[in-house]
Amino acid sequence: MPAQVLGENEQLKVEDLVVRFYTYEGIVKAVEKAKLTLMKGETLGVVGETGSGKSVTALTIMALTPTPGKVEGGHIYFKGTTGETVDVLSLKEAGLLKIRGKEISMIFQEPNAALDPLFKVGDQIAEAILAHRLPEMLEKANQLKKEKANNSSFLKSLPILRNRSRDKLLQQVVRKEILELLRLMEISDPERVIDAYPHELSGGMQQRIVIATALACSPTLLLADEPTTNLDVTVQAQILDLITRLKRRFGSSIIYITHDMGVIAEICDRVAVMYAGSVVEVAPVLEIFKTPLHPYTKALLESIPRPGSSFKSIPGTVPNLVTPPSGCRFHPRCYHAMEKCSREIPELKEISKGHCVACFLYGDA
Amino acid sequence: MPKNRLWNSEHPRIKELVFVLRKLKASPLSIAGLSIVLLFTFLAILAPVLAPTQPDRDPYIMPREGYASTPKPPNTEHLFGTTEGQYDLYYGVIWGTRSAYRIGVLVVAVSTIIGIAVGSLAGYFKGLIDEVLMRLTDIILAFPGLILAMALVVAFGRGLDSITLAIILVGWPSYARLVRGEFLKVTSEDFVEAAKAIGCSDFRVIIKHVIPNTIFPLIIMASLDIGSIVLTAAALSFLGLGADPGYSDWGQIISLSRNWITGAPGNPFAYWHTFIIPGIFLFLFVIGWNLLGDALRDVLDPMIRRR
Amino acid sequence: MKPILVTKDLKKYFPIRGGLLGTRKGEVKAVDNVNLAIMKGETFGLVGESGCGKTTYGKTIIRLLKPDSGRIFFNSDGSLPEDPSDELNQFDIAGLTRGKLKSLRRNMQIVYQNPSTSLNPRMLVKDIVAEPLIIHKICKGEEAEKRVLALFEDVGLASEHLRRYPHEFSGGQRQRIAIARALITHPKFIVLDEPTSSVDVSVRASLLQLFKELQQKMGLTYLFISHDLSVVEALCDRVAVMYLGKVVEVAGSEELFDNPLHPYTKALFSAIPIADPKTKRKRIILKGEPPSPANPPAGCRFHPRCSQAMDVCRSEEPKLREVKPKHMVACHLY
Prior knowledge:
By secondary structure, chain A is of the alpha/beta class.
């Protein structure tokens, strides 16, 4: 893998990603040459509506493209804690297992769908810990055993019971770790929660568990797919606050997917706007609100309801991705559409420092 | 496919049917199932043409040539040979297709109607009605199906009509259960409450809103069930509980070959045609409907989910 | 402004059944003594978080649910007599049954949150929208189809959409179909239960514009239930805030968002993310989890999470009182 593909500060680079879904109705061209770059330690917001391809892109970063989707092109370069750059799409299952949950973790939109209703939440977090941090936990268990060695009875030193006592110690160690994690999630009564089943917890609490599971192994990259969309606004505020604080503590980079521009304004450093499968604009958060360039971004910002003014919407509907429009996919709904827009697909070009647009209105080259 | 007006019609229900047929074309197994079912349907319709009847005889009674007990193998006069008692096997299996369809369709239709009636009441009104009706189905389902059917046929007196009635009585609880389950699922949907909000009476809600959304699973169940219904009827006929000997019914024909299954000393397959041929018809019929049912389920399921 | 719908001490409880014989173990007090007055022609917003009872309230006042106690006074012609009076009682719909309920449905309608599940997937769009006409025996056949088409024009659909199934439409279009169905009998009062929550942001604005236009054109009164406060602020005339089955504050939209008085309202508003990276809102983070409506706290229901709770809050329930002109709060601080 060419080491210079990722720059010094770059964590993840999605290049020309193509994902297609083979369905009953035809081939859905869900993601068409998407480009994204994530810097170390930053929060990149991905905004888009139905059909923009944002969720599919996020899942593909973990090589979890839902069936009947197939990745048909592009690369996803990722640099983890090892310092090595890998192309996620070229990894086999063994390599992916090392990354998922450990280097890259994901938080989903529906917390009660992400949690298995048959297991206590503590067990589900333990699963993540044991999958990736087993050596560390065993080490701690051994230490604990040594401390107890002097007090152990003759029975416990029998070979059959030795493993059992070690397993019990392992359980203790993992449990302590989980309680610590839950306290980090600002859960005030972790002892009760750790033994609860998902349905016994509220939505906000469930989402905290999901976040705890995702952060259990201190991942380098956290993917958050609309984690607060289904939560009440006060709970959302708590969770956003939590995520910001945890990010500072763990130093992870976050890709935060949402359709809520308010949330973007709150927690993101840079923003990528996606429409119908491609990235149409990328810019730092202040700039995207102050000077949006792409007509879609402008229209999206204008459609946010404001008291007193009339409601502005974007004419037309999201295109059918089985038969998408030719050229720029936004052109049928664009006020500034030119003749060129229906023929060619605009490339994502850097117009000013850190601000890229895919639109023929800008940067003729 | 010829692009005539019907195929390209804008009417939404026809578009749906065209969609279903096109999807059925896709898999070889479903084409096989569909072809077999169509073949049998034609056989049943064209029975009088393929095996002409005689004017003063019940068409379902097989013509016989003599009264000798030893079956004759296939020859130029009798295409498939004769059974014990010299009944023409070819005639028997052709008209047996009609018998099979008669039983199958009748049982499925009546079971479905009873199932919808019972299941819809139980699933829509819930509460006490649901409890009572479901206990009733529990009682019937507690008995092994074939045994209960046999007992009922003995009680009603033998004959194909008794078999039909017995299988209906044994089979309707499964349909009721399915309908009830679907009702419980559908009535929790918003559009049912929306129908009540615009002023629909309970009756109208059930008929116009809930039942059309429960039809697909019923169609799938019915098509998968026809095969096993005909098989059960054949089993009961084989045991002697069905029509009289000489009637064109696959189970009955196989029953005539009871003494000849082991064949002649030294030649175990001497009389293979007496049971293998009707057996093949039965086997193909059941498999054809099963394949079609499976294919329908693969097509209709995503259509149900397509919201 | 005259009231078109008034609820007095409205209660709707849901029994919790458990145990072997399904005995009544307790109740979820979804709507607990709610007194509200909605004026004719206005858009009345009802906000609150999940479990506060706003959807239950909306469904109860149009008699989709039967209230356990209390009165619902509704006059489709627009003005209710003064309270209390004998005249007023004849407009009480809380206890109506079958026949009268059906004719009520011509005047009160509801639009649901999720248009994918609120439309019968096996019915053609034209049948879905025309059904109310057939049920109330207003017209049928060709005449009904003409009316459906006329209404389609108002909601932004076309004649080629008539003979299609709901799944062939986008979310925004499906919601328009649901709106058409609600409006076909020219009702006077519509409950909008989070009608824009399930559609895309860009489509939301067009639906809100449509609501405004239809209201002017057809003289409608809306109860707009939502948890999306920015939409409520932009669309509604007056707003009520609910918490755990009770109304805690009612005021004009501008007044409420500029000067929230109740501690819960203040916390709620401070939690809305602002679409402007430069302004940092001072967050009031509420302690603890929202309590369950089956076991509400004694006294003021909000007191366990309130930073300004006093002793009286633990024992006595505050009444909804007018503390500023046209601004009512239920809080012991005032």
